[in-house]
Write a structure and sequence with these properties.
The structure is a homodimer.
Chain A: H1 23-43, H2 50-57, H3 61-67, H4 71-97, H5 102-119, H6 123-126, H7 130-136, H8 143-156, H9 163-187, H10 193-211
Chain A binds a DNA duplex through residues 18, 20-22, 24-25, 28, 49-51, 59-67, 69-71.
DNA sequence: GGTGAACATGAAAAGTTCTCATATACTAGG
DNA sequence: CCTAGTATATGAGAACTTTTCATGTTCACC
């Protein structure tokens, strides 16, 4: 996938200790995130070490703490970046395609998600915050909620249904797709095709049952 | 839920450094697991500390390492215990009920799962190994696989279908139910009723579509 | 070309995990 | 019921991580 781009997501979603102002430091922060992603990919989350991140990113440990309050925040920022890219790519795709059958919208979105799994280092480990938001930083507002809201806004333009019903169903569908695609990538590093197909089947079946055949 | 009982699950599933032989130490190991569960419930997984576990369990840190190779193994053992209890309770329930419509079997299983969420400390955080098997101890064999195999065996007795098809579908259904119930408990500590209902709806809808109306 | 804010750095303080030498409790055989 | 042999208990401290902070640089702007 090449059209994965960033989108603006509520800024305070990234609780940096200090926002990088100069371009030089912004670049460094990116490097730290890249390093974290690579290391998580290689060693797994809990072998991740601040010293390692710093070394891999080619900076001093102190620099890391210049911007991030703690290790967890680094991973959190990484998930935020992933989320931004995903929402951005979805927006982009939907804009390109114009009004479609929602059937195809589901396919598009899942395909983008698949592409991210395959092309973004560490994505299948970090996802949109499974690790930190749900398990480490428990009561934090769910990253997925941001995603669901975005999708709901997009879909609401094309589907004539009460927004709250849409949001609920999309939330369910999102969770289901999420779980099944993670399963697919757990079974096989490149994503088990049979499970991926089943994921699309389940999601479409659910949405069809809930909303009938609308465009 | 009161009929949650233990079932024997492949023993090596719990990689203890040393199996407690004397009753005294077996009890202590249980205490350590209880302490871990309570602490995870209260503080979250990453605030968990070996020292804390020991203190809460009323033992010395060294005792912990007498049986567990490392901190991760403690949590892993906790998930194994949860899994055993769940499989045991499911077995028990199915034995009691005798042949039912599979519709009711789904309800029963989800209800047991709900009960565990509500009655077992830390269960909604630890689950059957989300934390360690999937994210920390990556390539470990999935705990859910054990569960799915058990369920498949149980269901195969009552449903006339190729076992592999059953296993696949049950695996999908399990993952979906899992994800949605976790969502329900993320939204509300007691489990969001609307989402729970939707979970049952989705799972039944999927299985019905895949297997048609059989008993 | 000088000045204050932003940034970079790494030694060391603070905190965790895990080990190990030592002490104590069981258990089985006699 | 005594004793050797094994299992278990313990906690100080070794090893490793996270995080801080005082100090030195770089940048942006006037």
């Amino acid at each position: 996938m090449s059209d994965i781009q960033a989108a603006k997501v509520p800024a305070e979603a990234t609780p940096l200790r200090r926002q990088p102002v100069q371009q030089r430091s912004a670049k460094r922060v990116e490097q730290m995130l890249d390093a974290s992603a690579a290391l998580i990919d290689e060693l797994g989350y809990d072998a991740l070490t601040t010293t390692l991140i710093a070394k891999r990113a080619g900076v001093a440990v102190g620099s890391l703490y210049q911007f991030f309050p703690d290790k967890r925040a680094v991973v959190q920022a990484l998930t935020a970046r992933n989320l931004e890219r995903f929402v951005g790519a979805v927006n982009e795709r939907l804009k390109q395609l114009g009004p479609e059958h929602w059937w195809d919208v589901v396919d598009s979105i899942l395909d983008i998600y698949l592409d991210m799994h395959r092309s973004i280092p560490g994505f299948s480990k970090v996802h949109f915050g499974d690790i930190i938001d749900r398990q480490l930083l428990d009561e934090t507002r769910d990253n997925n909620a941001v995603l669901v809201d975005s999708l709901t806004d997009l879909v609401a333009l094309q589907v004539d249904r009460p927004v709250e019903d849409l949001r609920f169903a999309i939330g369910i569908a999102n969770e289901v797709a999420d779980a099944l695609l993670k399963l697919a990538f757990r079974k096989e590093p490149s994503g088990d095709e049979k499970i991926v197909a089943e994921a699309k089947y389940v999601v479409k079946g659910y949405l069809a049952a809930r909303f009938g055949e609308q465009s």
